[in-house]
Amino acid sequence: MRFFKAGFLRKTLFGPLAVGMACSFAVTPLQAQPSGLPNLGAASAADLSPALERTLGEAIMEQGRRDPTYVADPEINQYLTQLGHSLATSAATGAGQEITVFAVRDPQINAFALPGGYIGINSGLVVSSESESEVAGVVAHEIGHVLQRHVARGMTQQERSGHLLMASMAAALIAGLAGGGDLAMGVAAFGQAAAIDQQLGFSRQAEQEADRVGLDMMRRAGFDPQGMVKTFGRLMNASRLNEGTGGGAYASTHPLSIQRMSDMENRIRSQAASSGARNDDVFWYIRAKLRVMQARSGTPPANVVAEFKRETTLGGPRAEAAWYGLAYAALQGNDLSQAEEYLKQAGWPTTDIAPVHNLAVALRIKQKRWDGALRLSQEAVQRWPQDLGIALSRVDALQAAGQDTEALTFLQSAIKKWPREARLYQLQAGSYERLNQGIEARRAMARYYEQVGALPAAIEQLKQARALSTDFYVQSQIDVEIRRLQETVLANRALLERFR
């Protein structure tokens, strides 16, 4: 889905990546749309198999996480990924596809899909949404592109420019596998490929197919399908208002909008009603948090505060979330007494919303009230044992109180629940280091780097750990880990070399 203006194509790592690989229901000129999806056939299916597509996605995300606009907030990304998971598992076909949804701090209303099931959601999209179903509609459309393998098809078009795109991409990712120090320049090479913006401009058929699949997912997952219609309608209006102004909110007219809106409305009328009425109040709190984070990239804080205060008059979960947003903003500004007062207005300590309790723990840590932070975090873990954000707050409280041994014990159980959460290994490494367990600290950091896709850095950490050890058994274990990662690097390189 591409509905960003030209100015969104920022000169950061995600900029060229989003241009080159974003799925789109773009506001783009008609001539930028390929006439139809390329014929996959046996050759293109082999060229970009699901395994290779995932490898590309992981390598891209390794670089994307370094971008300053990437939102590395587990609470936000867990919510978005769970939202994506609930949709993907409700798909009529292709439900086995792994979906990872992450946030990007950018006020533009935008979302994009990368290879391998990675979906980026701009903060501006969430902040501008008036319901959870509106965000779900965007995510569902993107998942529709993923499940129909539109990304793979677009990246393997049998044209010279398509080959150049893949060759540039492969060269940059191979540089990353080799531990190249100037990888940013390699990734920027994606933006130099001929007609990148046209490579993944999907056809009318592909866009309507993503709409159809997305609407069906929403209905099966219990979301209101009208959420997708409302989001598209907002985009249509913004595009029409800014048409011809140059540098408006959207690049140009969307020639398919009216047709697609009609098609969506007809499908909704012809389908059975949604199987449920999902409406997670946590959405409003995630939205409030992203509004504060987004303010760091240009929105005047006074405007953010004013909007929160307006929403506090609306009543219900939205009003309480606005108080939470004010508390979060105050905490970020180190106004601890004001943050405490806003938290009470948000319903703490009686509210049944995990982000509010999470914020209370963070406030106690900043106040250096260790006993309070430990007590609140323990109560929160007991109340929300499956919440990653709560678990991380517990670790923060333990480490801040100097209880690294207890933190390690808790981290071991947390890693069993969330084995792919990189932050847990990083925190583990910090506690090991403070306890003067240098070998285990480096092995934990190696696991952290492996989870984020930085395999050369992981191998280097293991080599350092091995050099510190005099235990033959430990050295042998580390040797096995190094060989495994080296073999993975070689296998990934072999996959990528096919496109050079």
From TrEMBL:
Keywords: Hydrolase, Metal-binding, Metalloprotease, Protease, Signal, Zinc. Residues 77-267 form the Peptidase M48 domain. GO terms for molecular function: metallopeptidase activity. This is M48 family metalloprotease. Residues 1-32 form the signal peptide. InterPro entries: Mito/Outer_Membr_Metalloprot, Peptidase_M48, TPR-like_helical_dom_sf. It comes from Mesopusillimonas faecipullorum. The keyword Cell membrane does not apply. The keyword Aminoacyl-tRNA synthetase does not apply. Its cofactor is Zn(2+). It comes from the Bacteria.
